[in-house]
Amino acid sequence: xxxxxxxxxxxxxxxxxxxxxxxxxxxxxxxxxxxxxxxxxxxxxxxxxxxxxxxxxxxxxxxxxxxxxxxxxxxxxxxxxxxxxxxxxxxxxxxxxxxxxxxxxxxxxxxxxxxxxxxxxxxxxxxxxxxxxxxxxxxxxxxxxxxxxxxxxxxxxxxxxx
Length: 162
Ligand SMILES: [Zn+2]
Fold this sequence. Notes:
By secondary structure, the chain is α+β, with helices and mostly antiparallel strands. It contains four helices and six strands; from the N terminus they run ββαβααβββα. The chain has a domain at 77-157.
Protein backbone atom coordinates (compact mmCIF):
# COMPACT_ATOMS: atom_id res chain seq x y z
CA UNK A 1 0.00 0.00 0.00
CA UNK A 2 2.48 2.63 1.06
CA UNK A 3 5.29 3.56 -1.23
CA UNK A 4 8.56 2.90 0.55
CA UNK A 5 11.54 3.60 -1.70
CA UNK A 6 14.73 1.98 -0.45
CA UNK A 7 16.37 5.38 0.02
CA UNK A 8 14.00 6.40 2.80
CA UNK A 9 15.55 6.78 6.22
CA UNK A 10 14.22 4.47 8.89
CA UNK A 11 13.84 5.88 12.41
CA UNK A 12 17.27 6.63 13.85
CA UNK A 13 18.49 4.00 16.28
CA UNK A 14 20.59 6.42 18.30
CA UNK A 15 20.40 9.94 19.70
CA UNK A 16 21.48 12.55 17.12
CA UNK A 17 23.45 14.50 19.75
CA UNK A 18 25.04 12.15 22.28
CA UNK A 19 25.02 9.09 20.04
CA UNK A 20 23.59 6.75 22.69
CA UNK A 21 21.57 3.88 21.23
CA UNK A 22 17.87 4.04 22.05
CA UNK A 23 16.41 1.23 24.08
CA UNK A 24 13.24 -0.42 22.98
CA UNK A 25 10.27 1.54 24.32
CA UNK A 26 12.37 4.62 25.12
CA UNK A 27 10.78 8.02 24.49
CA UNK A 28 12.40 9.74 21.51
CA UNK A 29 12.07 13.47 20.80
CA UNK A 30 11.83 14.07 17.08
CA UNK A 31 11.93 17.09 14.85
CA UNK A 32 11.48 17.44 11.15
CA UNK A 33 13.88 19.85 9.46
CA UNK A 34 14.58 20.91 5.92
CA UNK A 35 17.45 19.02 4.34
CA UNK A 36 20.06 20.76 2.24
CA UNK A 37 19.28 20.13 -1.38
CA UNK A 38 15.56 19.60 -0.81
CA UNK A 39 13.25 17.33 1.07
CA UNK A 40 13.13 16.83 4.79
CA UNK A 41 15.09 15.05 7.41
CA UNK A 42 14.03 13.62 10.71
CA UNK A 43 16.30 14.11 13.73
CA UNK A 44 15.76 12.23 16.96
CA UNK A 45 17.18 12.88 20.40
CA UNK A 46 17.10 11.28 23.80
CA UNK A 47 15.16 13.06 26.56
CA UNK A 48 18.28 14.52 28.22
CA UNK A 49 19.60 16.01 24.97
CA UNK A 50 16.16 17.27 23.96
CA UNK A 51 15.89 19.08 27.28
CA UNK A 52 19.24 20.81 26.80
CA UNK A 53 18.52 21.70 23.19
CA UNK A 54 16.65 24.84 22.29
CA UNK A 55 15.59 26.49 19.19
CA UNK A 56 13.25 26.28 16.34
CA UNK A 57 13.81 25.95 12.66
CA UNK A 58 11.82 22.76 12.52
CA UNK A 59 8.61 22.03 10.65
CA UNK A 60 7.11 20.10 13.48
CA UNK A 61 8.11 18.19 16.57
CA UNK A 62 6.71 15.11 18.20
CA UNK A 63 7.64 12.30 20.51
CA UNK A 64 7.53 8.60 19.82
CA UNK A 65 8.55 5.37 21.41
CA UNK A 66 11.62 3.77 19.98
CA UNK A 67 10.84 0.47 18.34
CA UNK A 68 13.14 -1.25 15.87
CA UNK A 69 10.21 -1.67 13.48
CA UNK A 70 7.51 0.85 14.37
CA UNK A 71 3.91 0.12 13.52
CA UNK A 72 2.27 2.74 11.33
CA UNK A 73 -0.27 4.83 13.21
CA UNK A 74 -2.45 7.68 12.09
CA UNK A 75 -0.94 11.10 12.57
CA UNK A 76 -2.15 12.98 15.65
CA UNK A 77 -4.48 15.75 14.48
CA UNK A 78 -2.54 18.54 16.17
CA UNK A 79 0.75 17.49 14.62
CA UNK A 80 -0.86 17.16 11.19
CA UNK A 81 -2.31 20.67 11.48
CA UNK A 82 1.02 22.22 12.60
CA UNK A 83 2.83 20.57 9.75
CA UNK A 84 0.32 21.53 7.08
CA UNK A 85 0.39 25.12 8.34
CA UNK A 86 4.17 25.18 8.01
CA UNK A 87 4.17 23.58 4.56
CA UNK A 88 1.79 26.29 3.41
CA UNK A 89 4.33 28.90 4.46
CA UNK A 90 6.61 28.11 1.52
CA UNK A 91 5.58 28.22 -2.16
CA UNK A 92 8.03 25.46 -3.15
CA UNK A 93 6.24 23.06 -0.81
CA UNK A 94 2.80 23.74 -2.28
CA UNK A 95 2.69 20.47 -4.25
CA UNK A 96 3.50 18.40 -1.17
CA UNK A 97 1.00 20.46 0.86
CA UNK A 98 -1.75 19.52 -1.63
CA UNK A 99 -0.93 15.81 -1.35
CA UNK A 100 -0.75 16.04 2.42
CA UNK A 101 -4.08 17.91 2.74
CA UNK A 102 -5.95 15.31 0.67
CA UNK A 103 -4.26 12.52 2.61
CA UNK A 104 -5.60 14.10 5.82
CA UNK A 105 -9.08 14.23 4.29
CA UNK A 106 -8.86 10.49 3.58
CA UNK A 107 -7.76 9.97 7.19
CA UNK A 108 -10.69 12.13 8.37
CA UNK A 109 -8.39 14.60 10.10
CA UNK A 110 -9.48 17.37 7.71
CA UNK A 111 -12.73 18.11 6.01
CA UNK A 112 -12.88 19.68 2.55
CA UNK A 113 -15.21 22.68 2.72
CA UNK A 114 -15.06 24.43 -0.62
CA UNK A 115 -13.07 25.56 -3.63
CA UNK A 116 -12.61 29.24 -4.46
CA UNK A 117 -10.54 31.52 -6.62
CA UNK A 118 -8.53 34.51 -5.42
CA UNK A 119 -6.36 36.69 -7.63
CA UNK A 120 -6.45 34.08 -10.37
CA UNK A 121 -5.36 31.22 -8.08
CA UNK A 122 -7.58 28.25 -7.23
CA UNK A 123 -7.76 27.33 -3.57
CA UNK A 124 -9.22 24.47 -1.62
CA UNK A 125 -10.51 25.31 1.81
CA UNK A 126 -10.11 22.64 4.51
CA UNK A 127 -11.18 22.54 8.11
CA UNK A 128 -9.57 20.51 10.88
CA UNK A 129 -12.01 18.28 12.71
CA UNK A 130 -12.14 19.09 16.38
CA UNK A 131 -10.36 22.46 16.39
CA UNK A 132 -12.13 24.01 13.41
CA UNK A 133 -8.83 25.51 12.25
CA UNK A 134 -9.03 26.37 8.54
CA UNK A 135 -6.44 25.98 5.82
CA UNK A 136 -6.47 27.70 2.45
CA UNK A 137 -4.42 25.50 0.18
CA UNK A 138 -3.48 26.98 -3.20
CA UNK A 139 -3.88 24.38 -5.90
CA UNK A 140 -0.56 23.08 -7.19
CA UNK A 141 -0.18 20.06 -9.44
CA UNK A 142 2.16 17.73 -7.53
CA UNK A 143 5.20 16.59 -9.47
CA UNK A 144 7.48 13.57 -8.99
CA UNK A 145 9.56 15.41 -6.42
CA UNK A 146 6.46 16.41 -4.46
CA UNK A 147 5.32 12.79 -4.34
CA UNK A 148 8.73 11.68 -3.13
CA UNK A 149 8.69 14.32 -0.41
CA UNK A 150 5.16 13.45 0.58
CA UNK A 151 5.86 9.74 1.04
CA UNK A 152 9.05 10.62 2.86
CA UNK A 153 7.00 12.71 5.28
CA UNK A 154 4.51 9.94 5.93
CA UNK A 155 7.24 7.43 6.43
CA UNK A 156 8.88 9.62 9.05
CA UNK A 157 5.74 10.65 10.89
CA UNK A 158 3.28 7.82 10.95
CA UNK A 159 4.72 6.02 13.91
CA UNK A 160 4.49 9.19 15.96
CA UNK A 161 2.31 9.79 18.95
CA UNK A 162 1.74 12.75 21.18
ZN1 LIG B 1 21.25 12.15 23.68
